[in-house]
Amino acid sequence: MLMRTDPFRDFDRLAQQLLGPGTTSRPTVMPMDAWREGDTFVLEFDLPGVRPETVDVDVERNVLTIRAERPAPNGDWEMLASERPTGLFSRQLVLGDNLDLEHVSADYDAGVLRLQVPVAEKAKPRKIEVSTGSSQEQGAITT
Asked: I want to staple 48 with a disulfide (CB 3.0 to 4.6 A). Which of 27, 70, 78, 111 is the partner?
């Protein structure tokens, strides 16, 4: 269904923790859960504090890209603790050919982006009728 395409994600996260945010040029990765419910794959991404108008979901060929932004607070004050990442969040997933990328739906509620990706009709199990080669017996066997 999907494959991780960012082998350096853990390294970037470690670098941000040790050196502080903004030290790597790569976008912050958003946590994700994925599961299958019947004929639909469900993906949920945690994006707390992200305004819905900054969320962008694109599909190109079989690559699903999710982008969002949480701006850094600004003002005339001194930061005492900074543990919540800010800036651009991005995630790319390579989806299999067995999914219907024309009918992906997205919903954003309470800081969670939920995508539903249906299984393509051509990938669903179907019955194949098997006929017999005998001309005397015209019955068909269904498997």
From this structure: 111
Q: What is the DSSP letter of 103?
A: G
Mean pLDDT of the chain: 82
The DSSP code sequence of 55-85 is -EEEEETTEEEEEEEEPPP-SSS--S---S-
Is 121 exposed, middle or buried, given 0-12, 13-18 or 19+ CB atoms closer than 10 A? exposed
pLDDT at 110: 93
Q: Which of 3, 23, 45 is nearest to 11 (CA)?
A: 23
Structural domains of the chain ordered from first start? 2-142 (2.60.40.790)
Inter-residue contact 85 to 16 (CB < 8 Å): yes
Tens digit of pLDDT for each residue in 11-35? 666 666 666 555 445 566 789 999 9
Bigger pLDDT: 59 or 143? 59
Q: What's the distance, CA 21 to chain centroid?
A: 24
Residue 44 and residue 30 in contact, taking contact as beta carbons nearer than 8 Å: no
pLDDT at site 46: 94
Helix (H, G, I), strand (E, B) or coil at 123: helix
- 116 strand-pairing partners: 42, 105
